[in-house]
From TrEMBL:
Keywords: Hydrolase, Signal. One of its GO terms (molecular function) is para-aminobenzoyl-glutamate hydrolase activity. SUPFAM superfamilies: Bacterial exopeptidase dimerisation domain, Zn-dependent exopeptidases. It comes from Qipengyuania marisflavi. One of its GO terms (cellular component) is cytoplasm. The keyword Signal applies. This is Amidohydrolase. Residues 1-24 form the signal peptide. The lineage of its organism: Bacteria, Pseudomonadati, Pseudomonadota, Alphaproteobacteria, Sphingomonadales.
Amino acid sequence: MIRITSIRAANIAALLALAPTTLAAQTADPASDLLAEAAAQDDRTERVAKQIWDYAELGYLETQSSGLLQDELTKEGFRLTPGVANIPTAFVAEWGSGGPVIAILAEFDALPGISQSTSATRNQLADKHAGHACGHNLFGAGSLSAAIAVRRWLEKSGTPGRIRLYGTPAEEGGSGKVYMARAGLFDDVDVALHWHADDENSAAARTSLANRSAKFRFRGISAHAAGAPERGRSALDGVEAMNMMVNMMREHTSMDSRIHYVITEGGAAPNVVPDFAEVFYYVRHSEADEVRALWTRLEATAKGAALGTGTEVEWEIIHGNNPLLVNETLARVMEEKLRRVGGVEYTAEERAWAATISESFGDNAKPLDSAAQIQPYEKSLGYGSTDVGDVSWATPTVGLRTATWVPGTSAHSWQAVAASGSSIGFKGAQAASRTLTLMAAELFTNPELRAAARAEFDAARGADYKYVSLLGDRDPPLDFRK
């Protein structure tokens, strides 16, 4: 088991030079060469993760973050195809020839409305209105380093095959990967690998919820709210009427259903009847067909609200993700690789920092030592949603999570932003990079594993499977975060 500490590649080389017996034993183990290649990228992982954390760019606006990843790949000899699927910040980078095609996904978008320094106590940044509260800066950097480590191993070993890094924008509400899957960019991939920031280490086969979102826009008639109320028709009334009906609808949905909204615009002054208001809705369920059924009911509430308030309504579907199709054949091998790498251990300074963060969780705090542990393997339903789901219906897909955050941290929190820019986050990304490197090499050299994963994939999809996107044929909403 390899613990992720502050040791860098140079330190590792020095230690091996002092221990020739250990070196001989390691060279007899193919995994040791792979881990050495991955460890050699540790500085790159930290540097890139910190830079993307600083950028904190929102979905489809990640010009600097995407450009940084592409620059790093170009220096390593990857063939770049930028702007794929009509998305300026999306790209595909490939190295190698022949053999199987193994893909690694890389995300890099931040979340709006949340900011935090790397302080262990709440410290909003006045000049920053977004933050990496889901750790996508780590996701992008760790995946980048894994792709480069695999590329160097392929070249040194002479192993045939192609390693691809997919730069996938706007996971947070933009469904960047869905447009890429819809464009057929994963159709020739043998296996796709991904990972995510978390507060624990796990390669469990966890599914996700399908989801769809839309902005419902109500239009009414403005008037003086006191002087001529009879002449006005409030668009905000339309939004509130819709929300009231949806909240009543919740009582009559199945247990896996999730419906949530935020009013994005509701007027500027109480004495002006607002002629425009907007509400942004998400609908989720474990089954894509149930999302569609719930959506029909949601649209009916919008129409009813407009009719009852004398307003007009239209809506724009913003994103939609299919549920994640797990592949247990691959997941069990990924878990084996993760256990080989091991979890994250804190220095004394990091432990003190983590303890301060942990105090903010109250009863939700977890033991700090759990960051060094690997969670038991299981198949379960996750209640989040991800556009990796659509990739998983295009090609066999497997992922993992590493302890980039203090145990007990919730995603989309200020604590997650703080850890994602800290050494704790960087160590978690390095653990993920090592695991992905081992997994990719296994897939390149193990045709039986690839065949078994494909057989499970084909059986799960069914003989008559046909891909259908939950966002329809719309173009990418490149301005949805502006």
